[in-house]
User: Which sequence fits this backbone?
C-alpha cells in the first residue's frame, strides 16, 4: 500500500487513539511546524508564484476609508470585511505538513506495537485410552 493512500485513509478515517495522539503531538510540534511553513516553505512557494508574503493576499468586501493603508492589518482595524485567502493558504499548508508529520509518527508507533502473529495452539495430546484402543484395533487388523 502506498504511503499516499495510507495517509489519505488515516486523514479520512482515523480512530480515537490516532486523534488523541494527533492533538497531543500537534500541540507540541505546532510552533515548530509553523516556523517551518512560514520561514522555509512559504518563501519558496511565494517566489514560485511571484509573491513572497501570502499573509497579505486578500480581497476587500467593502469600501476602504480614505487614508487607510492597503494592508490586511490596517483594513481589518478599519472594520472593513475582507476575504483573507492568503492567510488561509498559509494555514492550509501548515495543516497538511502537520498532519503528515503526525501520520508518519503514528505509523512508526503502530509498527512498533504490532504483535507477532499468534500461532494456533498445538492440538491436545491424544488421551491414553484412545491410544490403547487404536493399538488394539491395529493389532486386530494384522
Assistant:
Amino acid at each position: 500500500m502506498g504511503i499516499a493512500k495510507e495517509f489519505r485513509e488515516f486523514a479520512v478515517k482515523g480512530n480515537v487513539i490516532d486523534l488523541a495522539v494527533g492533538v497531543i503531538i500537534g500541540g507540541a510540534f505546532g510552533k515548530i511546524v509553523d516556523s517551518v511553513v512560514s520561514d522555509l516553505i512559504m518563501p519558496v512557494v511565494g517566489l514560485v508564484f511571484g509573491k513572497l508574503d501570502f499573509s497579505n493576499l486578500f480581497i476587500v468586501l467593502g469600501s476602504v476609508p480614505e487614508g487607510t493603508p492597503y494592508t490586511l492589518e490596517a483594513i481589518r482595524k478599519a472594520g472593513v470585511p475582507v476575504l483573507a485567502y492568503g492567510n488561509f493558504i498559509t494555514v492550509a499548508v501548515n495543516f497538511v505538513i502537520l498532519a503528515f508529520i503526525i501520520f508518519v509518527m503514528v505509523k512508526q508507533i503502530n509498527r512498533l506495537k504490532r504483535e507477532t502473529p499468534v500461532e494456533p495452539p498445538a492440538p491436545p495430546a491424544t488421551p491414553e485410552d484412545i491410544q490403547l484402543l487404536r493399538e488394539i484395533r491395529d493389532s486386530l487388523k494384522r
Observations:
- The domain at 3-117 is CATH 1.10.1200 (Non-ribosomal Peptide Synthetase Peptidyl Carrier Protein; Chain A).
- The two ends are 59 Å apart (CA to CA).
- The chain has a mean pLDDT of 80.
- DSSP finds five helices and two strands in the chain.
